[in-house]
Amino acid sequence: MLSYAVALIGILIVFNSPINNLLFSGVNNQNQQCPNQIPQIRRIPLPKLSLKEDLIALEGNSSSLQCMPHTPAPIVHVYSREPLVLYIENFLSLDERHHLFDISEPLFEPSTTTNDGGQTTHRNTTVRDSEVAVIPRTESVRCIENRAREIQGWRDDVFIERLRTQRYRQGGHYNHHFDWSSNRGGWGRVSSFMVWVDDGDGSLVGGGTEFPRMKRRKDERWCAFVECPDKTATGNEDGQKPEDKLGVTFKVIPGNAIYWENFRSDGTGRGWDEVWHAGLPVQKGIKVGLNIWSTGYIE
Predict the structure, then answer these.
(1) Does residue 29 share a domain with residue 52?
(2) Containing domain of residue 17, as a range?
(3) pLDDT, tens digit (0-9, with 9 covering 90-100), for 8-45
(4) What is the CATH number of the domain that holds 74?
(5) Cα–Cα distance between 206 and 212 in angstroms, integer?
């Protein structure tokens, strides 16, 4: 009888304890009052100790920077609104591309992957086969950081991560993945830039950036920047034309960039499924890219 009583007390504690009500009351009350409303994320203050200069490009005093506009000037095209995806022509100048390559060359080391938010890393070439360099914050690099902030509108509590270049040799690739991973306490990697630095003087074959869940745009002017289906294709058994299907691959065009938002702006902390992406295998030549990630408050 004593064991039955103990079990009954345990059940009552689990389902009726003040701790349980405290942990789940927000969700329960929300579901009762607004059953169709998606629960909002619970936010915690950003730990200031996490803003380490080896990980975050802290702004500091930028008044002394000499960031002159370059030509041709950047041109921004909106590829998608939900999620927000921008295509930016001439994001980098030719001088900046050469500078990035020069300062990266002695720093490249094998890329790694992580499954626990960066606590541990390991080398797995079946998932990611490239070389990475965390580049020094020269004046030119800080100007690139500022450009990335400007495009995002100088958002509150959003910080540029230290810039990294990636080099992919023949066969190099990065399998499909999300940059956003999982948010913690309302903070996460809110946005990404994929910037192309070098394509081996035009000798590169393959290596595009693919978003298999993103809808294709039908306007043929986008074919200058994305891989377009064969015009002679007439569709298939499901009745869809090639341009109606999902799947977008952005071409490697040095100096240009893609920008995308990783999280929805509805307070739920949900990431966009459409930003699942991959660096496709390099079939010939060498590709060098620049990752610009922003971490901070999820709107």
Answers:
(1) no
(2) 2-33
(3) 434 333 334 333 333 233 333 333 445 566 788 888 88
(4) 2.60.120.620
(5) 16
Q: Are 20 and 99 members of one domain?
A: no
Q: Which residues contact 105 (CB under 8 A, 6 or more apart)?
A: none
**What's 175-244 look like in SS3?**
EEECCCCCCECCEEEEEEEEEEEECCCCCCEECCEEEEEEECCCCHHHHHCECCCCCCCCCCCCCCCHHH
Domain count, the chain: 2
Name the pTM for this structure.
0.82
The C-alpha atoms of residue 196 and residue 255 are separated, in whole angstroms, by 6
d(CA 174, CA 113): 10
**Are residues 19 and 104 both part of a single domain?**
no
Shared domain check, 90 and 20: no
Looking at the domain assignment, is residue 40 inside a domain?
A: no
- How many CB atoms are located within 10 Å of the residue 120 CB? 9
Kindly list the distances between the CA atom of residue 212 and the CA atoms of 116, 138, 148, 220, in Å, as whole numbers in the listed order. 25, 36, 25, 19
Rounded Cα distance between 194 and 87, Å, is: 10
Do 10 and 54 fall into the same domain?
Answer: no
Q: Which two tokens stand for residue 64?
A: 């002394």
Token pair in block for residue 84: 């927000």
